[in-house]
Amino acid sequence: MSNATFLLKEWNKAQGMKKEIADFFKLSQTKGFIQVLVTEECVHTRNHPYVKSRASRGVYAGTWIHPILFIKFVIWLNPKF
Q1: With contact defined as beta carbons under 8 Å apart, do 50 and 22 qualify?
Q2: What angle do CA 25, 33, 14 make, to 5 degrees?
C-alpha cells in the first residue's frame, strides 16, 4: 500500500496547487477502475483497494491505496508520469 495523502501533499506544495484526494475518488473513471480491481483482480483490503487511516498524523496517517490504484492516482496528478 502507498500513502496517497503524503504524495498529494508534496505534489501540491511543489506545484503550488490545491488538489484534493476526494476529487480523485469522486471521478466516475476512478469508481469504475476500483470496481474492476475488486471484481476482476480480487483486490481486497478491508473490502476496498484503499484504506483511510484513523491516525490523524504521523507516518500511518492518510489514505493508503493499492499499488495498481496508486499508478492511476499518480497519472491523475500528472499525465506525464
Answers
A1: no
A2: 50
Handedness of CA 35, 81, 63, 59 (dihedral sign): positive
**Is residue 1 pLDDT above 80, yes or no?**
yes
Contact call for residues 34 and 48 (beta carbons, < 8 A): yes
User: In the chain, pLDDT over 70 holds for what percent of residues?
Assistant: 80
**Strands, E, within 1-81: which ranges?**
2-3, 50-52, 63-65
Q: Which grid coordinates belong to 45?
A: 483490503
In degrees rounded to 5, what are phi and psi of residue 58? Answer: 100, -175
In terms of Cβ atoms closer than 10 Å to its own Cβ (0-12, 13-18, 19+), residue 9 is middle
DSSP class of residue 48 equals B
